[in-house]
Sequence to fold (316 residues):
Amino acid sequence: MMQIRDKRIVVTGGAGFLGRHIVNRLYEMGCTTVFAPRRSDYDLTMQAEVGRLFRDLRPQVVIHAAAVVGGIGANRDNPGRFLYENAMMGLLVIDAARRYQSEKVTVLGTICAYPKYTPVPFSEEDLWLGYPEETNAPYGLAKKLLLVQCQAYRQQYGLNAIYLLPVNLYGPGDNFDLSSSHVIPALIRKCLEAEGQDIEGWGDGTPSREFLYVGDAADAIVKATIHYDSPEPVNIGSGQEITIRDLLQKVAAITGFRGRITWDASKPNGQPRRCLNVELASEFGFRATTTLDAGLRETIEWYQKVHRPAAAVAAQ
Fold:
């Protein structure tokens, strides 16, 4: 078990959706020196900037949560950018951790790294069975490369680098921009803003996904940083699967949407199924505790509170 309370900890992407929850969880654990550098301070795609970050902050523990990511549409529209920036950030941060002798590095991958037709539930040993689903393959492969780097640096340099594979995350503070958001925030926003109009889902609604509440994900990441020291990648998820069609019906019910739901089969479905085998995460004491219904309600309540229409506020 690593004692992290008095360590100097850097959370890359610490000002982002997941990163903020990780930082908060570290403070709850009693950590006193936690840094969440922004891209405006240090551009992690530039080697000189990464070196400057490590010289300035001298991290003993690094949690690499920074990523350029989005839903199916964003992945389809930005394959080159998502591949380049995610690969460069990870490669440079992990190498700097080695050069500046950080004690521990926790790297967050993605389940987009899994092959398109991975047997369900996805097990960590299945990562290399084939090519990822085409719309998110550049992003998934960029992140997958970091697993290889973690294992190679452990073998050659003795770097204590671990690699986690979080499933689709959601929760308060998520990205609700319809041009780049993931499926849950997109569906929530569509249902809340429909105002009696029909809403449209992408694809045919048959693909399945597994979702993890962001607070649970942060808990898993901190627990792994403290307790897990092995080279094998670890799935982080809830172990529960739901189709996109059923998810939309659930979101509609919670938001009170009463309109008609249509599906645009010309839009991509993405990977056919996603559901993880999460047994390995129990080695460091993680088990998801937030049900999908409870997490959706909290996310919807947060969105309604933070993004209330200006007209409604003015009318009070």
Q: What stands out?
A: The first helix runs from residue 17 to 28. The domain at 8-173+211-239+274-289 is CATH 3.40.50.720 (Rossmann fold). The chain has a mean pLDDT of 93.
